[in-house]
């Protein structure tokens, strides 16, 4: 039977065309590497993306070629997202916070042929270049006046490239299963692995993630993605904002509390997205200077567990709703979002906070289940916890360059351990390798960390399982105190009273000057476990 419907399959190029046609005069504001703010509109961004696509064509970039970027969140990076994917090539966003050896490994693995970079990264690129045989061209994302003094083979200047081109490029049509962008997981769990998104997975994800139920980005929003464009495509915000016609504000390299606050106020940001450490920095800055927000309505927090204390502070002190979200590079990334249901309106503040602190319900398209060690599904009772499995149209099937499927019976094994409650809310209790196994019982390191950071003197906390002669493993709490703050072990441990069972209490508290982080800002627990392995055996 033939249907009566068109077989239209939207491509990424249509997002920017849509924005340019229907939101021509909506602004895109960027804090630049050169200094100051740059502002233009969707119509200009589309025009320049077409010039860039023409330039790439003249540089012999072909369908399926990998075009790498080493860049902050800014308008030129935005143009690359659309020009590269729009012409049928693949935009490969590199995380500059990785070690040079990891970057070399990733670039060689992806076989990138062109590398676009912000001037900030010129010294890094110069260092990497001799070990990058596949890269034929380097493009500095600036104008001639700001070209960094680097020695690179075949170095081109972004603005010169655009200037030489016409802006009447016609975006090609191709199947929406064509690959569009490539991201590597940061290797918290071994060698980095590439996830190659398609136009289809990106567009499906866009429809789901934009909804009020999800990230809630609309034509009245002013969006500040603090999450980097090299971290799962800034959680897809450049695509979502273009689809919605939202004003976009890019923070460039300035991600500290003062700069984020300044940009939020100056540009009238209504929604902003980032990992918990960003919000800790912002809150500390605001507390210190007695500041308030005038336009911000929502912060979306994900990438690592968001402590309930952040959610509470934003709401109580600043009237800002914090929306907790969970996802992975492998899920494009939006998997779940924690928004209250209508029936929760009558709950007490504390009860509401407990729900908001969960990682949330899956957006439509994403299916979740939890399983035990034998692969049997576990009940959705909010208590049973097991391995979290996910599937859906924007979830990885296999890693880049690998023939073997990454799925188990059609499901992707996330490596997270979670509960799911009868209302569909998922809560991560741990990353499976971070769970503390004490005398056959499991203790959630995330839960212990969240309680520790609710102590007013604590800036950051990590809880790790450390070998123990009697209990196999016991929790050890490592604490970084806020500047000029003091606290004793006993004071920190008293925070746990009445919140958890006694046997879950960390056996020791150690004050440290700082904690190690991965390139995506997460606690590097593997390193910590190695450093403190013998703490309870001495
Ligand atoms: P990696 O850190 O391995 O590079 P990702 O950046 O894709 O990979 O991170 C995905 C992981 O981050 C998830 O599997 C989960 O462990 C963690 N994560 C993401 N969001 C949350 C959240 N809201 N709460 C707890 N953990 C989270």
Could you explain how this protein is built, in words?
The chain is α/β, with parallel strands linked by helices. Helices cover 28% and strands 24% of the residues. The protein is built from 16 helices and 26 strands. The strands form 5 sheets. The chain has a 9-stranded mixed beta sheet with strand order 2-1-11-10-12-13-14-15-16, sandwiched between helices. A 7-stranded mixed beta sheet has the order 7-6-5-3-4-8-9. Strand 1 and strand 2 form a beta hairpin. Helix 1 packs across helix 3 (75-86) and helix 1 packs across helix 9. It binds adenosine-5'-diphosphate (ADP). Adenosine-5'-diphosphate binds at residues 185-186, 188-189, 302-306, 324-329, 359, 414-416, 428, 431, 520, 522.
Which labels suit this protein?
16 helices; globular; 538 residues; 28% helix; 9-stranded mixed sheet; 7-stranded mixed sheet; binds adenosine-5'-diphosphate; 24% strand; alpha/beta
Percent in strands: 15-25%
Contiguous uncertain segments of 5+ residues:
none
Helix content: 25-40%
Net shape: globular
Strand sequence of the main sheet, in spatial order? 2-1-11-10-12-13-14-15-16
Would you tell me the overall average pLDDT?
95
Q: How many β-strand stretches?
A: 26
Largest β-sheet summary: 9 strands, mixed
Structural classification? alpha/beta
> What is the count of helical runs?
16
**Distance between the terminal alpha carbons, to the nearest Å?**
74 Å
Question: What is the gist of this entry?
Answer:
The protein is an alpha/beta fold and 538 residues long.
Helix/strand layout:
Elements: H1 12-22, E1 27-31, E2 37-41, H2 42-58, E3 66-70, H3 75-86, E4 90-93, H4 100-110, E5 114-117, H5 122-128, E6 137-140, E7 155-157, H6 158-163, E8 179-184, E9 194-198, H7 199-210, E10 222-225, H8 232-235, H9 237-244, E11 247-250, H10 257-267, E12 271-274, H11 276-289, E13 298-301, H12 308-318, E14 321-327, E15 334-338, H13 349-356, E16 361-362, E17 367-371, E18 386-391, E19 407-408, E20 411-420, E21 426-431, E22 436-438, E23 441-443, H14 445-452, E24 458-468, E25 472-481, H15 489-494, E26 508-511, H16 525-531
Parallel strand pairs: 1-11, 3-4, 3-5, 4-8, 5-6, 6-7, 10-11, 10-12, 12-13, 13-14, 25-26
Antiparallel strand pairs: 1-2, 8-9, 14-15, 15-16, 17-18, 18-20, 19-20, 20-21, 22-23, 24-25
Helix pairs in contact: 1-2, 1-3, 1-9, 2-3, 7-9, 10-11
Bound molecules: adenosine-5'-diphosphate (ADP).
Adenosine-5'-diphosphate (ADP) binds at residues 185-186, 188-189, 302-306, 324-329, 359, 414-416, 428, 431, 520, 522.
